[in-house]
Automatic annotation (TrEMBL):
Major localization listed first in the record, in broad terms: membrane
ABC transporter domain mapped to chain residues: 350-584
Protein name, as recorded: Subfamily B ATP-binding cassette protein MsbA
Chain ranges of the ABC transmembrane type-1 domain: 34-315
PROSITE patterns: ABC_TM1F, ABC_TRANSPORTER_1, ABC_TRANSPORTER_2
Top-level class of the enzyme under EC nomenclature: hydrolase
Length: 607
């Protein structure tokens, strides 16, 4: 039976990656790079000068032929060290600066790209992984770029100059010494491939780690409530151990050259000393030449070691760059069409014409939906769980684009107007309130940062939030915690409503979450919502009977289709699906939220 060859993951070759990094991000700083390169050349040249000046030191001074040369030698050595010091400092500072600029540009570009990416794409990746790419991957690119820019050129040039000195002193010995190069290059190239693969896996594991941490800290309440601490500890321990193993492996791979390099170099060094010593003893060359040669040989060791270490860092950075570029290379599909205009319509009626939509995994969510939301009116969507209500809502601000048919706003296809003007016309209040760890004031003003304190307070008053806000420890300046964790459910809802009030958009999308609130909170939120709806074209996913009774029109959705529509009374008279829901509710807790549960054959009321 033939054995299947082990598939290795494909990687972009080193050169295209380096070219992309350098071409796109280094070009603006070419002047700084050139200046730093000149300094690096001076620095490298001074090492060679040192090695070269050993010849007259040995042959002229130590042999007693020209003792006066000692002073000149001392001055040259001192000046060389001063030049090395300053050129080393300034080139390092310049190159580091360029490296940091490159990375800041990459970080900004990646964030700008991700924040504009399609929602479907963002939802397909764990948020921890995105954070990890922005922090860990970009940081690896930062380290690699700074290191490579600062040390690569310098080490390579120093090596070249020193090899030059070796050839100048004894071309035969130099050639023998260089026999080590093809071996080392071969092993280095074998090592780099392995190293890149391990580095890629390490970065991926870091992403998984970040993702797991984000989820467990965000869901800390549930971890505790379900007693899952030990389970989560075990999961984190597994990833931490995986990371340890991967890092160890990477270290082992990168260090594998050390013994081989040392042994090869040792062999050559012994050969150089023996052959060189015999040549000098036989009078074919001088002691100075031999000392200068071995000096250059030994000095060349340091940049050689640094280059092989840099190779490790370079591969780790390139693995990260590959991951960053993979994110950057996924273009958003929900973008402004060429020639898209600003939304400028007199009325904001919404119309769905035979809209079809499937999610990326193929789930058909909407299967020919036609519905109308007249300008300034409220339309409620009712239906069992998974019937497609949220999907309908998500199509209006173009979180997703329709797969067939069209959605129009004020008679204009929403794909023909700019995304910014479309979204500026829409206010959204949903079950996830979208509160950030900012002050109450900052959260209300999110979406209209230029709002005055008076406007913010007026919005809070209209949302029945002003009084409770004043009762918070620092009033409007109280921080609400991540997802508004320091507030009650009703308070979070009212801040979200105040935010929509302040935005004052003509179209309002509501995904009611009042079913989770107690009756007092619910009344306050309902009142606030009613005020918010006034004069706006509103689409509401209804969970409460009161909303449905008030709605100008109700659409009953089932299996991604509209199965009934009309006013509350009309639908009751129709005695169809809606009347059935209503009857079930009337016997229950009076909330359409229970429709979801009941429709799925559950009898217990939700909330
Ligand atoms: N991101 C997604 N990827 C794949 N399928 C999805 C996604 N979101 C929703 N669906 C599927 O699309 C269908 C419609 O979902 P939708 O969220 O629109 O229903 P809903 O009526 O709002 O339900 P609920 O009242 O429970 O919120 C369901 O079958 C659901 O499983």
């Amino acid at each position: 039976m033939s054995k299947k060859p082990k598939q290795k993951p494909q990687h972009t070759a080193t050169l295209p990656l380096v070219r992309r990094l350098a071409g796109n991000y280094l070009r603006p700083y070419i002047g700084m790079v050139l200046l730093a390169s000149i300094l690096i050349a001076i620095n490298a040249g001074s090492s060679a000068v040192l090695a070269q000046k050993l010849v007259p030191l040995i042959d002229e001074v130590l042999s007693g032929k020209n003792p006066g040369y000692l002073r000149t030698f001392a001055i040259i050595v001192f000046i060389t060290f001063v030049v090395r010091g300053f050129s080393g400092y300034f080139s390092a500072v310049l190159m580091n600066n360029v490296g940091q600029r490159l990375v800041a540009a990459l970080q900004k570009q990646l964030y700008n790209h991700l924040i504009k990416a399609d929602l479907a794409y963002l939802h397909s990746l764990p948020s921890g992984q995105l954070v990890s790419s922005l922090v860990n991957d970009v940081n690896q690119v930062r380290q690699g770029t700074a290191e490579v820019l600062t040390n690569y050129g310098q080490s390579a040039l120093t090596l070249i100059f020193l090899v030059g000195v070796m050839f100048q002193q004894d071309w035969l010995l130099a050639t023998i010494s260089l026999t080590v190069v093809p071996f080392t290059t071969l092993m280095l190239s074998r090592m780099t491939g392995r190293l890149r693969r391990v580095a890629g896996r390490t970065q991926a594991a870091l992403g998984t780690f970040a993702s797991l941490l984000t989820q467990t800290f965000q869901g800390a309440r549930h971890v505790k409530a379900y007693g899952m601490e030990a389970y989560e500890q075990a999961r984190v321990a597994t990833i931490a151990d995986d990371l340890r193993k991967l890092t160890n492996k990477s270290f082992r791979v990168s260090s594998s050259l050390i013994p081989i390099n040392e042994i090869l170099s040792g062999l050559i060094f012994v050969g150089v000393i023996v052959y060189g010593g015999l040549e000098a003893a036989a009078g074919h060359s001088t002691a100075g030449t031999l000392t200068s040669f071995t000096g250059a040989f030994l000095l060349a060791f340091e940049p050689l070691k640094r280059l092989s270490k840099l190779q490790t860092q370079l591969q780790v950075s390139l693995a990260s760059a590959e991951r960053v570029f993979a994110l950057l290379d996924t273009p958003p599909t929900i973008v402004d069409r060429p020639g898209a205009t600003e939304l400028a319509v007199a009325s904001h009626g919404i119309h769905f014409q035979d809209v079809r939509f499937s999610y990326q995994d193929g789930t058909v969510a909407l299967d020919g939906v036609t519905l109308d939301v007249p300008a300034g009116k409220t339309v409620a969507l009712v239906g069992s769980s998974g019937s497609g209500k949220t999907t309908i809502l998500n199509l209006i601000p173009r979180f997703y684009d329709v797969g067939g048919g069209a959605v129009t706003l004020g008679g204009v296809d929403i794909r023909d107007v700019t995304l910014s003007s479309l979204r500026a016309a829409i206010g959204l209040v949903s079950q996830e309130t979208g509160l950030f760890d900012d002050t109450v004031r900052g959260n209300i003003a999110y979406g209209r940062l230029a709002a005055t304190d008076e406007e913010i307070e007026a919005a809070a008053k209209a949302a029945a939030a002003h009084d409770f806000i004043l009762g918070l420890p620092q009033g409007y300046d109280t921080r609400v915690g991540e997802n508004g964790v320091k507030l009650s459910g009703g308070q979070r809802q009212r801040i979200a409503i105040a935010r929509a009030m302040l935005k004052n958009a003509p179209v309002l999308l509501l995904d009611e979450a009042t079913s989770a609130l107690d009756s007092e909170s619910e009344r306050l939120v309902q009142d606030a919502l009613r005020r918010l709806q006034q004069g706006r074209t509103t689409v509401v996913i209804a969970h409460r009977l009161s909303t449905i009774v008030d709605a100008d029109r109700i659409y009953v959705i089932d299996g991604g289709r509209v199965v009934e529509s009309g006013t509350h009374d009309e639908l009751l008279a129709l005695d169809g699906a809606y009347a059935h829901f209503h009857a079930l509710q009337a016997g229950g807790h009076g909330a359409v939220a229970e429709v979801d549960a009941v429709a799925q054959g559950q009898t217990a009321a939700v909330g």
